[in-house]
Write a structure and sequence with these properties.
- The model has no long low-confidence stretch (mean pLDDT about 85).
- The protein is an alpha/beta fold.
- It has a four-stranded parallel sheet with strand order 1-2-4-3, with helices on one face.
- Helix 1 runs parallel beside helix 2.
- Helix content is about 35%, strand content about 20%.
Length: about 80
Amino acid sequence: MAVTRGRPIVVAASTHPGERNILLEAHKTLAGFFPSLLSVIVPRHPDRGEAIARGVNRFRAACGAAFARGVAAATTDIYVADHHG
């Protein structure tokens, strides 16, 4: 899969409210060491995806990270997996 090939990946699964900012700060720090890092956030409850996405968008605007929902691309830095398959 081109999206993940050769990239370090951090998955935060079954996340709870309040953990988003911790995860985004961890991504920012780790991306300094691993520029191709892909961070995947999987909320415990998919209906929280919209709130998480809003916070990630604010983070993205502040630090320039590429963000995706639905379908990730090879250039995606942070992916919110909040959709049922």
